[in-house]
Hints:
Blueprint: H1 4-19, H2 54-65, E1 74-80, E2 85-90, H3 103-114, E3 121-128, E4 131-135, H4 158-171, E5 176-182, H5 229-243, E6 247-248, E7 252-253, E8 262-267, H6 271-281, H7 284-297, H8 304-317, H9 341-352, H10 361-364, E9 392-398, E10 401-409, E11 415-422, H11 430-445
Parallel strand pairs: 4-5, 5-6, 5-7
Antiparallel strand pairs: 1-2, 1-11, 3-4, 3-8, 9-10, 10-11
Helix pairs in contact: 2-11, 3-6, 3-7, 3-8, 4-5, 7-8
Amino acid sequence: MARPARAAFVTLLATALCAGLVSSARAVPGSVQTTQQAPPVLTPATTEGAAPTAAGVGTALAAILKDPSLGPHHGIYVYDASRGKPVFSVGAATPYTPASTLKLLTTVSALATLGPDHTFATKVVSTGKGSIVLVGGGDPLLTAKASASDGFPARATLQALAASTAKALKAQGVASVTLGYDASLFSGPAVNANWEANYIPEGIAAPTSSLWVNEGRVSPGMAKRATSPALAAATSFQRLLTQYGIKVGAAKAAAAPAGATPLAQVKSPTLGQIVEYVNLHSDNDGAEVLLRHVGIATGNGGSYAGGVQGLRATLTKLGLDVSKARIYDGSGLTRANKVPLDLLAGAVRVAVSKDHPELRHLLSGLPVAGFNGSLRQRFTSAGTGTGTGLVRAKTGTLTGVHSLAGYARDRSGTLLVFAIASDSVPVPKTLDARAALDRATAALANCGC
């Protein structure tokens, strides 16, 4: 049974989340205030109790790790972040297909290379009298129009950009223009060669572009993706300009002159907010865009291959060992990815570190067990209650693959960082395996051992 103080904490957290009062950065070790309003209603736990032992953690997890639903290849790695040392691992000698827990590596690399306050601008530039170009800046969350369903963070819109552009053109006495669009910021194939052939047709992912709206979807909230997200965005912009009184023909691909002064621009949410969104909702498309930004920021170019090179270099600079990892994308969609558990946990470990306050948004965007994001409907089965509200973790799911990586404070106040995975789950045992992972991380939160 949870201690009274911990039970009160869970109740308070549930109330605050439901009321929308808690910034996603709250209750995060060493958290900095985000741009979300409302004063803090929770104080991050700072107590550090008795040091956990390998024997104690092993005893708490022993029965769970024998669950046959996990299949033959499963393991867990646990790190005592309060004292800066590994405390327990089993089955961690070989890498795992990480699925979406790979997003931790992508997002921590983006924060490290660009900084949490970085924004991405979508611009309209003039290329001569009566000619404009819409220039994509790699804003992963750009939408055509604002919607009440967008939620946090507030997004840049083509509608606002069209209104500003029309105003600037009218001030110059221009009422008719030709429209080009430039999506050249990213390079290389738009679709990762390591993905399954059905990913694009079935709307699991979009062709990655530096210019799109609604993450490449034909319509907001729909799975179907545009064949050319950049052209679809430009066509949407054309219609909006027309609504604001500017006559404009069909959009065509064009190169914007280097250094051209923008007629108008809109800026994305901060990178910190985007990272929170990507991890909370396990956003494949957003992760792929961030991977390419990492490639550009590290001088490796805006292809997915350049992004992977930049990611590996950035993780190495953060002190993480990537030598045993095989990484091919930013979202974790490909099964070709193979990542050690200590590397997945390592992304969380460096974000927890007092040496890296710029990485805190990695923590504040992690789903809360039983409350939000991809963990909203988890931690409901027997043996998982002690993790509800106390475990924060990124989920990973592919057929036969299930993983969690994140952190929890145990009963004594020790901050435990963990990664647990199986990439050999029998398909009929999918729900059982997920419940086993939930029980394991709940046991860590309840451990104090």
